Automatic annotation (TrEMBL):
Superkingdom of origin organism: Bacteria
Function: Functions as a ribosomal silencing factor. Interacts with ribosomal protein uL14 (rplN), blocking formation of intersubunit bridge B8. Prevents association of the 30S and 50S ribosomal subunits and the formation of functional ribosomes, thus repressing translation.
Subcellular compartments: Cytoplasm
Protein name as annotated: Ribosomal silencing factor RsfS
Similarity section: Belongs to the Iojap/RsfS family.
InterPro entries membership: Iojap/RsfS/C7orf30 (IPR004394), NT_sf (IPR043519)
Key words, A-Z: Cytoplasm, Repressor, Translation regulation
Pfam families the UniProt entry points to: RsfS
The species this protein was found in: Microbacterium thalli
Subunit structure, interactors included: Interacts with ribosomal protein uL14 (rplN).
Length: 129
């Protein structure tokens, strides 16, 4: 898949995660060590409910954009939800699981993909550009 397509997929997923309070969003280019996946998006939620809401929003936004989910794991417990869209795998973590598993440390040699905010909202809820 082209770099522009991956950046677009990351932006869609990141905007959805952000809309539900996702924190510490990091996108990694894992295309070199993993031939079947181009990017990971890592997101933190502050509770199981928040993790589930973030995962559901990401899945819904990606489907609306034409990206079908291939696999989802962890939704029942909502401590670490993995959503596989083929070229992009989204990891939505409870804060504690993210620290424990440390995927950023594991994939530290992979380049970071800049996350382009489609729309940023201020803390008051007003849309700003």
């Amino acid at each position: 898949m082209s770099a522009a397509s991956i950046i677009e997929m990351v932006a869609i997923a990141a905007a959805a995660a952000d809309s539900k309070g996702g924190e510490d969003l990091v996108a990694l280019d894992v295309s070199q060590p993993l031939p079947l996946v181009d990017a990971f998006l890592l997101v933190s939620g502050n509770s199981e409910r928040n993790v589930a809401a973030i995962a559901d929003a990401v899945e819904e936004s990606m489907l609306e954009a034409g990206h079908k989910r291939l696999r989802r794991e962890g939704r029942t417990e909502s401590r670490w939800v993995l959503i596989d869209f083929g070229d992009l795998v989204v990891h939505v973590f409870h804060e504690q699981e993210r620290v424990y598993y440390g995927l950023e440390r594991l994939w530290k040699d992979c380049p970071v993909i800049p996350i382009e905010p489609a729309v940023v909202t201020s803390t008051s809820g007003d849309v700003v550009s």
